[in-house]
Amino acid sequence: METGEPLIFDQFKKIIALEQERLIKLSDLPELVSFFFKKNLTYEKELLLWKKMSVVETAEHLSEIKNFLTKTSPENFNKNFLEENIKKLIAEKKLGVGETLWPLRVALTGLKASPPPFEVAEILGKEKTLQRITSAENLLV
Q: Distance between CA atoms of 107 and 101, rounded to whole angstroms?
């Protein structure tokens, strides 16, 4: 498995807590959390598209989120702040919840089914979150 930077113990505790509800057997854990440890994610660009959204619309939504996250201070890069403020951004810009959060979740995890993007972003941290969104944007080009 291709790995990125090692995670610190606090991040690992958050990962376990995040997946606890979805975990049926302990042996399922590596498959559920492997995306946290990968340097680069591999998935088809169609997975980023919510329902009948176009590639252009999806790229625009990811760009809005990326611009917001770029301006977010590292101190505020936590689940509560991100969830509250991204939902405000979605409402203000009339982006649509599914249309925005689906591609964000896929960009961060590379998966169809995964934990919510706010928790994932907090664990990944600002730099890795922005890298993954940029990779998703590049995939859409």
A: 10
Least Cα distance to 91 among 79, 100, 82 occurs for 100
Residue 56's contacts (CB-CB under 8 Å, 6 or more residues apart) are: none
Tokens 């690992």 sit on residue: 12
Digitized pLDDT (tens) for each residue of the chain, 141 residues in all: 445 555 677 777 888 888 777 778 878 777 888 899 899 999 999 999 999 999 999 999 999 999 999 999 999 999 999 999 999 999 999 999 999 999 999 999 999 989 999 999 999 999 999 999 999 999 998
CA–CA gap between residue 58 and residue 38 (Å, rounded): 23
